[in-house]
Amino acid sequence: xxxxxxxxxxxxxxxxxxxNAIAVDVELVLAVDISQSMDEREFALQRAGYVxxxxxxxxxxxxxxGATGRIALAYFEWAGTIRDDGIxxxxxxxxxxxxxxxxxxxxxxxxxxxxxxxxxxxxAFGAELFEGTAFxxxxxxxxxxxxxxxxxxxxxxxxxxxxxxxxxxVNGLPILISPSPTFSRLDQYYAACVTxxxxxxVLPIYAASEFATAIRRxxxxxxxxxxxxxxxxxxxxxxxxxxQGERDRRLFSDPYFPELDR
Length: 262
Known about the structure:
The protein contains 9 helices and 7 strands, in the order αββααββααββαβααα.
């Protein structure tokens, strides 16, 4: 089980790149929601979206067009916890062969889900992945997807602030195919509470048919570092309650997470 407090303690530690570090245009972490609020169809669409995006010629071309012609990519799945077998370690992507090899690893993963939605835990873990890498990236980005608000662990704004303090950019892919009637504006929540950093953006998915295209577009933007005027940067008309997910969880009194009722 993820030790959130341990991760947060390390989150702001400085980490110099090793002398023989591999220069890359971006170090990109894909943090993928597998919480039980997502149904099997959404799991399959999300998985296929990442696999197709990584194999797509436009993504490969975006990688190759950078100053170094390569990126470093890592992947992990998260819910209320993060498990060791849900992590795909860092790999250099510099060709269709390396991109396809990474996509193969994602495609081979079994479908599974866990209880809870700890965006804060995912951000803390994602930020820790940048510590002690063999790369020297021009940019560091966490790309986080999800279909609900944070409801377990530290407040999401706490771990986001720690990640931003390290110069990490956080982009969001909120999934609103089947929005909760009590939390229908997940796009605004991601904009106000989850994402941040120079050029950060939120790219909501409103329909199943948008998955593959949205994921590919998002990855290309993150690899290229070019701002797209079509990308949605949401400014909430009213203040967003970044603790609503935790309050809703307490309201429903989940017996699996009694610490939320303390």
